[in-house]
């Protein structure tokens, strides 16, 4: 840096120090309107060289002046003012929220000796979001920049050229927020002069603004939502926030996931149809569209679901605990959205039903057992925290088969949960509380866990979509374990799209679950990218018809064959396959019988356990006599296992897993398959779910259950049945693609008639 430039910069910095008391205010603009900076010249604050000291100035009364004299004096004053350095601030004055505002800052009447400048830009943080500042030309160097809420300070230098009056020096970019109204941006400037290091001011200037809220979805800015807006969104489909063109379509990112995807198209299509919001069978996209149109708030949505729980759950017994803070959280979400115009994340304001074996701060985590009804954990499980970070609201904790060991969903704390399609039947399990609640529209989306079928069985029996992820895709941290070698948490939803969106949110590496390290580099940018209505076209799917997997129930077989025919109609090739070693694989027991005691004892001694929980082992729990009586004998048997590392255990853990993985992968490779297919449950609700659900946990591979229709049962209501697709490890995207194509081509899910919309 040459001495001339250094001296000029020092003069600016010195001026910044000296001007602390000159009226240049450092507090944020938003704090008070009267704090706007009022620039003063140096002569306003301190005597300059050669000035008469203030104490010696004697005021002499001016003689009476004629009107002509006054007019002449004013002309002279105006001429002098016109020749003084001043700030010029220009930019678009009328904005709509979400629009980018570029404020151009220049100087006029600039002395030739100006070599450095200091600009202070003040703005209202509730109306504008600062984005960047850049030099307006190569002759300008930004040599210093400081940001504070409502205030940006920029120091520039022009070492090799003179400034030109009214020529922009810097460009400051903002984004208009949703808080509409009148406001302004105020800029003051100080000048550093060379060669003597003198300084001066250029006063201040204000750009008045008016921000309009505008019509959400009006991408073409013509005051209405029309097909052209959808066409524009389609043009930018798959664009992400890292693309240079992002600003052109950013306001079309309705679900706030920094990408233009199918959910955004669905939200805009709903606006185009002007479809009124309906709670029954609503989706995340529907909810966000209604929120963005102003038709719905998170508070109203939570209230609607709470009303349904209050009116209907006495018949279902699906809910163990309602979140007493849900409405307060919803109000906070609404206030945040009103202030920023942005959704916090892809699940902003979405009420979630959570199986009650996930640690959830502020709510008991019980596994359905009376013994843990005071287990208020000190931390959230990893997956619950990810839901909250994405904007979800934990609405309620659902009943489950006690300690997740069973498929009928009965517990000492919650009793028997009923199936919403037939209240005399169970909903499957162990995640049956989540399944029943979602099917009856008591919540928007839900979480289950799966050790041997506990997501997919209740999904089948409640006409839901359930995803059991690859072991390692989602974290098991903070989940009451059944058998960690097989346990995994995953989404349950009424649609494939919502399940895929949930999987986006809850997947990922967790340092507290080393198995999730396998997922690094194997998670796509979004599972919603696989939502292809033509997802079955060109696919190859293998059907396992062995009776140990398919079962023998004629209705289930009929529905499976119908599903196969539908897939073929939609472009898939479906072939029968034989899985080697199938009988051997299915002869093995689940590890829940072996690992449970040891895994549970570890959980009971973890730092996050509720301080009021005094139990430290399964033995302590059994001693209370509070455990579900029908499970007592099996729990006693599990508690009698003294050592985990037995030869039998090692055989199951190693040989069973390896054999299952190799057999499934070789079947898919030999037949060039995208997935394997079989019924999610081998019999309608009330019968045996069968053994097919073991293939996924025994291998660790992913599987998805999707509604396939209703089985006819003589003298009883029809029973929902699902088909299951099993894929390669970490290939959930392909399963979602196939399931979505099937779902969209069939639309087999039907809401239970016993739980209609409530009237106001």
TrEMBL record:
Signal peptide stretch: 1-32
Pfam families cross-referenced by the UniProt entry: Amidase, Cohesin, Dockerin_1
Domain Amidase: 301-735
An example Gene Ontology biological process: polysaccharide catabolic process
Recorded superkingdom: Bacteria
InterPro entries: Amidase_CS, Amidase_dom, AS_sf, CBM2/CBM3_carb-bd_dom_sf, Cohesin_dom, Dockerin_1_rpt, Dockerin_dom_sf, EF_Hand_1_Ca_BS
GO molecular function: carbohydrate binding; hydrolase activity, hydrolyzing O-glycosyl compounds
Keyword annotations from UniProtKB, A to Z: Signal
Polar residues bias: start-end ranges: 26-51
Positions of the Cohesin domain: 87-198
Region feature Disordered, mapped onto this chain: 26-74
Keyword Transferase (UniProt): no
Protein name per its UniProtKB record: Amidase
Organism name: Paenibacillus roseus
